[in-house]
Write the structure tokens for this entry.
Amino acid sequence: MSGQIAYRAGLHELGDGIFAYLQPDGGWGWSNAGLVTADDTSLLIDTLFDLNLTRAMLDSMRPITESSPIGQAMNTHGDGDHWYGNQLLPDGIPIVATASAIEEMRAAPPRLLDATVNQLELGPEFEQFVSRTMRRFDFQSISERLPNESFEGTREMSIGMRRADLIELGPAHTAGDAIVHIPDAGVLFTGDLLFIEGTPIIWEGPVSNWLAACDSIIDLGAEVLVPGHGPVTDESGVADVQRYLRHVRDEPPRASRPGWTRRRQPMTSTSPTSSIGPRGADRRQRRGDLPRARPVPAGPDGAGIGSADGRWDVTH
């Protein structure tokens, strides 16, 4: 099934009342979302990075949600491209996320990201980067709407008679990553634990946790996986992410061998990654493990590695 879903922008039916909303090319801020329907009601999985994008997504879903209104929503983690559009959701519905994700959302509201990318002067490289990426989104018009229900570990949600299992697998990409499994359909929404055809970014880690999360995803046996960024995939996509993470984990020790020299690389935007968040860099600065041009000698488990491509030296 996953190979039959074209990677085109918009809403795609995965079968049996389940839909993926895709945003190519999956780069900074261009995230995916999902809709699960049953018995005249719907669960929305994630909103998008700004109100314009989220409004367009909800409009595309209207032929479905007119007869199966969105009765509840879930945010897979705390990055803004998965929750900044929450204010457009129906009033009064439950919006669920892990407790750790909500903590991260409080630390990185839209107004903070707007100030970071539109007001601060952080040097010519950062200016070039945000002009190509973050300034394509409108953060000024967003009113923060946090999830109103939290969970830790696991939680079962009901969409009519259909079951959705929420499973916390962070810290990995962020502190509060969670996935949504629809067992009767064999469909899994992974949030940013999967980046397909793009470079994963590690805000939190350690790498061992993310690798374990990938194992948990495989163990569920879902045939169709909707990643946080990139095209719909299957178990092979999980294996690709695992191979990359192992490379990130194993490269820093090799970088400390005699004869290795660090070379500053120019910043580029060729590698799709997840949404930028000022709290990611801030947390690393407090911990003293700010990501730099890769490869960076880090802990034996790869903790402290930020953007795996490392093409922007965050120290400035």
In short: Residues 264-316 have pLDDT under 50 and may be disordered. The chain is about 25% helix and 20% strand. The CA atoms of residues 96 and 261 lie 46 Å apart.
